[in-house]
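COMPLEX REQUEST
Ligand: S-adenosylmethionine
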Amino acid sequence: MTYGPSYQKFIEYVDQRKARLAAESAARFEGHSRCVLEIGCGDGDFLVAYGQENPQQYCLGLDVYKLRVDKGLKKRDQLGLENVDFIRAEATEWIETLPEHMAFDAVFLLFPDPWPKGKHFKKRLIQPDFLSLLAKKMAPEACLYFRTDHKGYFAWTQEHLAQHPDWTLGPVEWPLEVETRFQRIMGAYQSLVAQCTPAAVPQALVHP
Ligand SMILES: C[S@@+](CC[C@H](N)C(=O)[O-])C[C@H]1O[C@@H](n2cnc3c(N)ncnc32)[C@H](O)[C@@H]1O
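STATUS: Structure written out below.
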């Protein structure tokens, strides 16, 4: 298939960005095989508090907005936390470019953009392909923690997890209660917790 010059340029740009992410992750995870991940970490309220409570865990927050990443870094620096870092990256791209040996001890997705209109549902982060990608990087018994104020997105996520062969919904036990910026704004919310089915965890991650 032949693409026009502007689309070709866009593909090259994405390839370069992915190569840069892969190089960064290879360096970052040279001494680590595990991390706790927060996707769409916003101002970093949750991850900074979680990292402070769990100094033995390496905690990474991702957000596409530089301004939010910078706020998280500032909070981290004010507390002098060496086990917490924030990265500007898109979640799917970043996960796709991780080194093979790397796995998540937990993944938090708190108040993700709900994309409430039907024509935008395809933009929601929770999709079958995304759940498959995530499942390949979950450590044994690691959980996905999801929280939203949006009833439609909660039902969507519950349904997608229930139907996905790699995931099982579990009891909702929340490891740490921290009011994030969006939790403060939104008020009422619902939470769910899911775990990978043991068969979905790649053998390479069972005995790292
Ligand atoms: C509604 S805000 C919630 C922020 C924070 N979790 C909170 O509870 O205050 C959603 C955040 O996800 C980020 N985001 C959206 N899609 C993303 C993606 N694909 N990868 C990384 N971050 C994303 C947005 O930039 C935004 O900061």
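REMARKS: The radius of gyration is 17 Å. The mean pLDDT is 94.
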